[in-house]
Structures are given as structure tokens and as C-alpha cells.
Amino acid sequence: MKVEYEDYEHLSPIPRLYGYAGATAAFLAFACLHSVVRRFAIPATITDQSGKWKWKNILVSWIHSVIVGGWVLSSFYYYPEVTQDLIAFHNLYCYGVVAFSTGYFVCDFIDIITNSQENAMWEVLLHHVAVLSIFIYNLTACRYIGYTNVALLVEVHSVSLHLRKMMQMAGVSFHNIIYRLNNIVNLIMFLGFRMLAIAWISLGMVWYNKRMSTFYIFLLVSTMFVMWVINLILFWRLIKSDILRNMRKHRSGVENGKNTQPPVTHGINDNNNKQSMQKAL
After folding, report:
1. How far apart are CA 8 and CA 252, in angstroms?
2. N or C of the chain: less Cβ packing under 10 Å?
């Protein structure tokens, strides 16, 4: 039997204090993690201070993606009813992952600013401002928790995305079978999780706009515009780097009677803006 929306409209809201406390605890946990990673988890191949900071920042982002990716997948597995009403349905488990990620995004935003990386990573800051405006509203109102869980499905893809960057920075060869397999998985998961989540939310704005306030629609449209722009640019850069570049090199190698590949670099074409784009949700 199909459950009607009204069945979930009467759920008692989770006290907003729980959300604020969870976000604060996550913020403190990631701040401590930054300090630990900075001291003990930097490869010997990275010697400059800028590279060390990038490694630390991406590794912490990867840890966040692993935790949240598993958490949000389990949310849909254990509570499939969330998909019956992504606006009104909520429970402490689905609500908790939103609070956890809110704390992480605040911590990452501050880390970028305090380390004077705002010029190189302005896309990430723009992404965090857009995401936090939605997440904080949803935590406070205890509404749209299901759609926020959908948004966090992008973190499943971010596991392979951040791993790709870390392997580059650690000097892993483009010929390495693990690196090449991860690149294939990365592109598949980009479509299967990141683009799926963005499209799902975008359709929800059209289908259920009558259940949203004018202010929230404005907030959501602004955020989704940023998400579409950032992620389409990211996808094109991944296609150029991992598919088109390899095709050109293979064709060139065949024409010259050999197939060579340059040494690995510390990023996509050594461009800080391209590196920062990979951090986008």
C-alpha cells in the first residue's frame, strides 16, 4: 500500500538542538583530524608546504566521503520509506548524517580561509556557501531531510574522486592498474551517484514546488544552479584528462610507432583551480 505524504507531515520534529550539537561535534572531530593528518600522514614525495596542505585537505575530505557515503547508503537501505516522502519524512539516523556533514563543511571552509587558499579554491568556497545555506535551513526546520540525504549521495562518488587525486599526488603512475581502474569507476560513479542526485533534486523542485515556500525555492534554485555549473565543468575536465588525453596519446604513439606516457603530475594539468574543482560536492 502506498504511503501518502500526509502520513509523514505529522511526524514530530527532531529538536534543532540535536542538529546543532551534532554539527558542532563533527566540526571539532574534523578539526582534530586535520591536526593528526598534518603531522603523520603526508607522503615523502610531497615536500612543499602547499602540497602538504593540499594532501591533508583532500585526505580529510576522502575520510568524510567514506563515512558519509556509507552512512547515506545505509539510510536508504534501512529506511526505504524515506523515498516515499523526501520532504516530510525524517528520523534521527537520516537527520544525523546531515548534521555530521554540516560540521565538516564548516570546518573545511574555515581551513581553506585560514590557510589563505581562497583564491585557488574559490569554487569550493562557493560550493560550501551554497550547500551550507540549504543544510542549515533543513536542520533548523527538520524538513527536506530526505532530499538532503539524496544530495549526500554525491559523497559515494567523491570516494573515488579524492582517491584519484591522492594517487596523483603520491606519484602513482598513470599506467598503474589500480589508478586506471579507479578512473573508470570514478566516471561511472560520477553518473550513477553525483549526476543522479543532482537530477533527482532538480526534478523534485518541479514536482513538489507547491509544498515549498517561495524563500526555499529561491534558495534551492540558487544552490542547484551552482551545483550544475560546478559539476558539469568537473565532468568535462575528467573526460578530457582521463579519456580524451589518453586517446590522443595512444593515437600519437601508434603514428610514431610507439606508445609513451609522460610522468605523473600533481594534479590535472598542474592547475590549482582544477584540483579545487574535484573537491566540489
Report:
1. 60
2. N
Question: Which residues 6+ apart lie within 8 Å of 174 measured at CB?
Answer: 180, 261, 264
Q: Which percentage of the chain shows pLDDT scores above 70?
A: 85
Which amino acid makes up residue 38?
R
What single-letter DSSP state applies at residue 175? T
- CA of residue 198 relative to chain centroid, distance: 12
**What is this structure's pTM?**
0.83
Distance separating alpha carbons of residues 168 and 86, to the nearest angstrom? 38
174 pLDDT band, cuts 50/70/90, is confident
Model confidence pLDDT, tens digit, residues 45-103: 888 888 889 999 999 999 999 999 999 999 999 999 999 889 999 999 999 999 999 99
The region that residue 46 occupies, defined by phi over 0 for left and psi between -120 and 50 for alpha, beta otherwise, is beta
C-alpha to C-alpha distance for 139 and 121, rounded to whole angstroms: 26
Assign 3-state DSSP to the chain and report helix, strand, coil percentages, each to 5: 75, 0, 25
Residue 109: C-alpha distances to residues 66, 163, 242 (Å): 19, 21, 29
How many other C-beta atoms lie within 10 A of the C-beta of residue 114? 9
Run of H or E including 170: none
